[in-house]
Design brief:
With 154 residues, the protein is an alpha+beta fold. It has one domain (2-145): Nucleoside Triphosphate Pyrophosphohydrolase. Helix content is 19%, strand content 32%. It has helices spanning 41-53, 130-145, and strands at 2-9, 18-22, 28-29, 32-34, 57-68, 75-79, 92-101, 114-118. The strands form 2 sheets. The chain has a 5-stranded mixed β-sheet. A 3-stranded antiparallel β-sheet has the order 3-2-8, with no helix packed on it. β5 (57-68) and β6 form a beta hairpin. 28% of the residues are buried.
């Protein structure tokens, strides 16, 4: 099974804020959904952005991929370019992709209670949960130090 979270930037470039959404439990997260059968990554990115936050987004690059280990449920995240494991097995995968807001719409949704556009360097100041918490533990050092740590995150 494959899931996808989308880091939607307000506009292209290093100053474009990233959209974070607060769910009903009061926890911040990125728009996320399961990838449908025979759906391309590009189509999934655009669908998730539109269905969950009402934004027309242009699909970007994969940032990171996480694999949920069957034996213990722990998610390991690997930065794009450091993916060395077999992605054709029966593990559950969680992909993180970037996207850019095409029409400068403001987000709207029945799923989330609050939205914020946050500079990428400030993402570490917000409390995330689940897979997004594990993702941020690996992504935040990359954004702030400009390097991708080459270790598996547990």
């Amino acid at each position: 099974m494959k899931y996808m979270s989308v880091l939607i930037k307000h506009h292209a470039g290093p100053t474009g804020g990233v959209l974070i959404c607060k769910n009903a439990d009061g926890v911040w997260q990125f728009p996320c959904d399961r990838i449908r059968t025979n759906e391309s990554y590009r189509d999934a990115i655009e669908r998730i952005a539109w269905e969950q936050v009402g934004i027309k987004a242009a699909a970007g690059d994969r940032i990171m991929i996480g694999r949920k280990l069957i034996e213990n449920g722990i998610v390991e995240h690997l930065a794009e370019g450091n993916i060395t494991h077999n992605t054709h097995d029966k593990h559950t995968y969680h992909n993180y992709f970037s996207a850019v807001n095409k029409w400068q719409y403001e987000p709207k949704s029945d799923i989330f209670t609050e939205f914020k556009w946050v500079h990428p360097s400030e993402l570490g100041e917000y409390e995330f949960a689940g897979d997004d918490k594990n993702f941020m533990a690996k992504y935040d050092p990359y954004i702030n130090a400009r390097f991708i740590p080459d270790v598996r995150m547990y």
